[in-house]
Every structure is written in C-alpha cells, then in structure tokens.
Amino acid sequence: MTKTHKRARLLEILAVEDNPADIRYISEIFKDGRLANRLTAISDGDSALRYLRAEGEFSGAVRPDLVLLDLNMPGKNGRKVLEEIRRDPSLSHLPVIILTTSSAMEDVSFTYDLGADSYMVKPADLSQLIKVAMCLENVGIGLVAAPARKKKNPRSRGNERRTND
Predict the structure, then answer these.
(1) Are the CB atoms for 101 and 47 separated by under 8 Å?
(2) Which run of H or of E encompasses 14?
C-alpha cells in the first residue's frame, strides 16, 4: 500500500493512448507505485486536446501534471497533439513523455524537436512496463506538490527538527 503524506496532493496524469490493454497495464503499475496519483485515459488526440483545454464535454477537467502520449492514434496523432501542446501558451509548460511502440530515430528526433520531455519505447512484453514506470516515477517525483508549509510559530527560535514521514 502506498503511504502518502496527508497534505500531499495527487499527481494528475493524463495518458493519451488508444490501446485499452496498455491503459490497464499503465493504471495497474501506477496503482502499485510509490507516487500518489490519479490517471485519466483519453483514447484519441482530438479528445486529449479538448480535455487539456477543458472544452466541451471536458469543461471543468483537472489540468494534468504530466502527459503520457502515444504517437500512433486514430484521428489527430501524438505528433500533432504534441505540436499543439507546445504552441498553446496555456499548455506549453506541461511535461510530455512520449510512450510509444516506435523506436524509429525519425520519431525520436522529431518529437524531441517538438519539445517532448522524454521518449520511451513501450516494451513488447508489457510486463516490462514496470521498468518504464520506474523511469516515470523518477520524472514524476519532481512534479509532486510538496506539502503545504506550516506557518512559522512566532515564538519559535528556528530550532525545530523536520522529519520525513
């Protein structure tokens, strides 16, 4: 069971992936991981952009802290989605990790040129996705909000000890 600080907020993750089996694996891996998170899955690029912009059926959607983006999807593919994310000033700051089956150098180069934060090839054996998730946790650790700071007690002299829970 994951132990979470009572004031820490969840890491909001948007997975843009059209394969339901991959979503199940990703969901299970993050459920068992050390990061408190909420995974939202969207199966196509057009819907992902509406979600990120909180438009239409996604009005009121929570802005993710991290986007996991497949390249090969129906409709607007991951390359186009990444391009639009990076062009949109309200979305351009979002960390985007490409998680795809393509290991083609032109895909790797193209997505880095578009501003992807990382590029990870999905393993053929999805049970190996645990290793990928461990890499994602390393990226995500910097994205998790720190607990709210306690207000400083005006009577304290600054010699309190902090402990990690």
Answers:
(1) no
(2) strand 11-16
Task: Find, among 92, 35, 32, the residue nearest to 67 by Cα.
Answer: 92
Is-contact 128 107, C-beta < 8 A?
no
Rounded to two decimals, the pTM is 0.73
The CA angle 112-118-120, to the nearest 5 degrees, is: 110
Residue ranges per structural domain of the chain = 11-136
Output the six-digit token pair for 128.
């190996």
Q: How many CB atoms lie within 10 A of CB 58?
A: 17
pLDDT at 36 over 70: yes
Above 90 in pLDDT, residue 70? yes
The identity of residue 151, as a single letter, is: K
Residue with tokens 């991290």: 66
Asked if residues 57 and 85 have their Cβ atoms less than 8 Å apart, the reply is no
Q: Which CATH number is associated with domain 11-136?
A: 3.40.50.2300
pLDDT digits (tens, 9 = 90+) for 125-148: 655 655 555 565 555 434 433 333
pLDDT at site 68: 93
